[in-house]
Amino acid sequence: MISRRQADILVEQGKVEIDGRKAVPGDMVIIGEQTVTIDGEKISPIEKDKQYIVMNKPAGYICSRKGDRTIFELLPSKYKYLSYIGRLDVNTSGVLLFTDDGNFANSISRSDVPRMYRIVIDSTLDSDAIDILKNGPMLDRHRIKVGQLNIKSKVIIMEIFEGKHREVRRIFQMLGYNVLRLHRIKFGTIGINSLRMGEIRRLTKVEIEQLRNYIQKK
Hints:
This protein has five helices and 15 strands.
């Protein structure tokens, strides 16, 4: 590895070429798309380790880079460039993933990775609503697959396998109930563990591989 100053000197000496032409000071290189040589020897780019982060998102923060009280205000400076996976609306809290691995993020978003929610509603579910949830509610002319379902009075733990816009809230609105609190407990196997609201941690290698398994199942 050479320093920035050493690289500048090599460029000034005419020893650096980009795609066969002499480099000039200020040239930018697209890693993976352009070939860089020094004295005719090809230079391999240094691969930067990808970042995978989970946040316990608080309610009241939006998944956006614009506006007031955004999730990026909660990230340390070194992670603010990351993108989130699986948007949560402003009033929903819980598991929110961030990464700089674009292919991983897109594949996970399109996969059937399970999302587990803790839902608090305004009144106890009646038997008809329970049956609908067990059989898979219809939303936008599409039957929603429901996995684990645990109902205790006004508190429901529910597992679904898609991430459509405000999906959980819309399901209960369709059933005639208002969602008072909504918290994503898990995304795949990724949970909050001991994270307090607004805190983050890096995913373990095991957790990343578990998420990759959902991609491979597609």
